[in-house]
Amino acid sequence: MHEELADVGKLILRLYLGLALIGHGIYKILHGIDPIMGLVMNHGLPGWVAYGVYAGEVLGPVLIILGLFSRVGAGLIVINMLFAFWMVHMQQLLTLDAHGGWALQLQGFFLFMALALGLMGSGRLAVYRD
Questions:
Q1: Closest C-alpha among 73, 40, 75 to residue 58
Q2: DSSP SS3 for 69
Q3: Do 33 and 94 touch, CB atoms closer than 8 A?
Q4: I need a surface site. Which of 32, 63, 107, 126 has the fewest CB within 10 A?
Q5: What is the pLDDT of residues 45-55, one digit of tens each?
Q6: How confident is the model at residue 108 (pLDDT cuts 50, 70, 90)?
Q7: Whole-angstrom Cα distance, residue 94 to residue 63?
Q8: Do residues 110 and 81 touch, judged by C-beta distance below 8 A?
Q9: How far apart, in Å, do the first and last CA atoms of the chain sit?
Q10: 0.85 cut: is pTM over it?
Q11: How far is 44 from 46, CA to CA, in rounded Å?
Q12: Half-sphere exposure (Cβ direction) of 86: Cα atoms closer than 13 Å
């Protein structure tokens, strides 16, 4: 029984993380990534690196929602969020918002839930159990 509940927990984690993040990717598909390309180039990287956001915010979420190579999908999300922290949010890393919460609560959620999922794997309620 314990293992079945753990698999349900992993499914809930996969679905919520994937669905919460994929909206950000869909927005970028519909509106483009020019602002991200500018950030990437301002950090001394070639502009094409910005296309990696699609891996972290579309491909990664799709993989974890399906439970198909979830660890790979989670890894893509972790990399994406580390880039977001580095390029956009470093000045907020140790700050609180107006209500006393961590200023990077949402970004931290994406990063640490993806990291946890990458360590645990998809569970049995997945297309491909990893």
A1: 73
A2: coil
A3: no
A4: 32
A5: 999 999 999 99
A6: very high
A7: 31
A8: yes
A9: 20
A10: yes
A11: 7
A12: 13
The per-type count for the chain, helices as H runs and strands as E runs, is 6, 0
126 Rama sector, left if φ>0, alpha if ψ -120 to 50, beta otherwise: beta
Sign of CA dihedral 110, 5, 63, 66: negative
Cβ neighbors of 24 (< 8 A, separation 6 or more) are: 57
Amino acid at 130: D
- For the stretch 15-60, pLDDT in tens is 999 999 999 999 999 999 999 999 999 999 999 999 999 999 999 9
Buried b (16+ CB within 10 A) or exposed e, 29-41: eeeebeebbebbe
Structure tokens at 33: 């990534």
Residues 64-75: b if buried by 16+ CB within 10 A, e if exposed:
bbbbbbbbbbbb
What Cα–Cα distance (Å) separates residue 96 from each residue in 43, 99, 103, 112?
A: 25, 8, 5, 18
